[in-house]
Write the structure tokens for this entry.
Amino acid sequence: MADLDFIRKLIIPADTKIVFLVMDGVGGLPIEEGGPTELEAARTPNLDALAAKSICGFTTPISPGITPGSGPGHLAMFGYDPCRYVIGRGVLEALGIDFDLQPQDVAGRGNFCTVDAQGRVIDRRAGRISTEKCIELTALLRERIKLPGVELFIEPVKEHRFVLVLRGEGLAGDLTESDPQQLGVPPLPIRPVEDAPQPQASQKTADLVNQFVAQAQQVLQDQYPANMVLLRGLDKRPAIPSMKEVFGLRAAAIAVYPMYRGLAKLVGMAALPSGTSLADEFDALEKAWPDYDFFYLHFKYTDSRGEDGNFQAKVAMIEEFDSYIPRVMALKPDVVVVTGDHSTPSLLRAHSWHPVPTMLYSRYCRCDEARAYNERACARGALGNILAVDLMPLALANALRLTKFGA
Amino acid sequence: MADLDFIRKLIIPADTKIVFLVMDGVGGLPIEEGGPTELEAARTPNLDALAAKSICGFTTPISPGITPGSGPGHLAMFGYDPCRYVIGRGVLEALGIDFDLQPQDVAGRGNFCTVDAQGRVIDRRAGRISTEKCIELTALLRERIKLPGVELFIEPVKEHRFVLVLRGEGLAGDLTESDPQQLGVPPLPIRPVEDAPQPQASQKTADLVNQFVAQAQQVLQDQYPANMVLLRGLDKRPAIPSMKEVFGLRAAAIAVYPMYRGLAKLVGMAALPSGTSLADEFDALEKAWPDYDFFYLHFKYTDSRGEDGNFQAKVAMIEEFDSYIPRVMALKPDVVVVTGDHSTPSLLRAHSWHPVPTMLYSRYCRCDEARAYNERACARGALGNILAVDLMPLALANALRLTKFGA
């Protein structure tokens, strides 16, 4: 893995365009021994034609055996070391509701929960209250709770989940969580983690969050089963240098779901209006084509159907995506990468550790004998199995945007 | 990547011989979509026969997407981390003219340039003066310029290029360059770089170099268009442990071009008299066979013809190299590696980032289904795609020169 300072020094300007087509969770597994994976079962004439002109192989999101969440999966794909730039749960949750998180904000993920008369947690999700109830209770908290010197945002997410954001001077993240992760014990007080880099600012923030929890308990005392809150993942946005700074790219994101637009904004991409369907996304790509050097186009439903465990529905999503490939190629991009942020085999109904089938097309890609975009074909490709974080330097090289290292 | 201290502790003696056959810039690309690469177009019966007995695959010189210069490309191939041991331009230029650079010397790459009456650079290469003129002007500078307490070497290279070497006590490199890299502005004063590890020694050296520049401007004032000098890459040789120290190898280099002999000398190889042709190089190999454990044999013209963009001429160079393989095998080497320091596709007319087709032959190499030495065959090899820096430990292992790590 080449570090970002190393890459930054090699960047040269070029009038070339790079497209990353990302089918979330695209990698899969056979549902029956010896059977096809989702990609192999899908009829994908356009992806296969592109594979014949591409270098094919696999990308490993983190390292062998490690299953990534969406945050690290995307950061790696965007060229950022996912173990160095860590996105807290609160930040990810805030991005997921399109909350405009500022660099100084501390965000946490909240659960409404149930406590008994002694204050011991007896249901960590408050019986999964309805989203309507969540909206009502967050409004109540917003109205009643005041903390000295900070602005407070309490935003509903879904069912028992909400986001807490503290905005003000001198705050810091790196805090422990209040969720005891077991029943029969009270919520834990929030503290700075042991090696917090700014212990005083973290202590100040912890004090404020503990005040929030105490006031919330008062406000919610008659709201059984949602009579208490638990907080996890209280942190700031990681300070990530932008794709413009490190790669010299004017980068744009096209994604229907807020969380993916948010992840792209963390690395400085412009989040384009992307509509609600795949057709809308490709319309957005065509419309913005002259204005950017790099496009990240995200398709959510391959992952969603994989998480449902619905093999055939995931196959259908792949086939739908395939039908849009000619519209990309008609734009005459210099580099096209087809990949995913991780695998989501229907068989596992979850993100997995499996390397992601990946192909890179360019005039200079040194194509190979792989003639289809799927797991078995990619195993015959010349790309081998590279780290996902190395994909961006490779795309930049193929776009003739990197100069030589050393004389 | 295993670091050198780790490897050093595992070295055991053995009476085995390793040969690295290096075709500079050997990796290529098809010139037409779907067509053969240079290696695939070449008729190489001897390399292919060796491939059938070898383990085949690719080596990546630095990391995916990164194009190496000759310095880092060679260091990686010799088993040294190319991002840790950095060779300055001045050092490389000095090696290229066979200058006997000492560990304490500071070497810089010089250009004669043209300045106007106000001292502003108007041609960074002084109209590419002839090499004869360069020899004349460097002699003039040598005669007239004196710096206190240091010995000065001013050596012509070619056209407008020369090498400056300062020899004396207490000098250091890590200096900025005087070349402003643009026209219409005066040359920049030389300073220590921001994070120079020996700032005082670097400052002292910068002061001396600035005196050199001031005196050169006086001496050259009537020599329009070569009426000024620019300096870049002022640095010492990197302190690199020798191949004898870290790998226990008596190592020899066979190379026609001075720069490659110089790179080999940086890692402690003996630079053997190598003549001027490939036949001379293989003669040298046979002659020195009893005296060394490791041989690096360098062939320049695959790279040269690639940089010319001459696909057919590069093919011819590969075919010429192929014809010498039986002479190597007749020596009964224990390990033979065929590789390049980087790829130089004719299509790009330059070094490139593409992994280098590489094969390793030994009695113990676990050979594979690759039956030819080229890009498509190597993609089917069992070596996979490894870092170039890992090739040396692999060769040592195959030469039974590495013991077990741990009990």
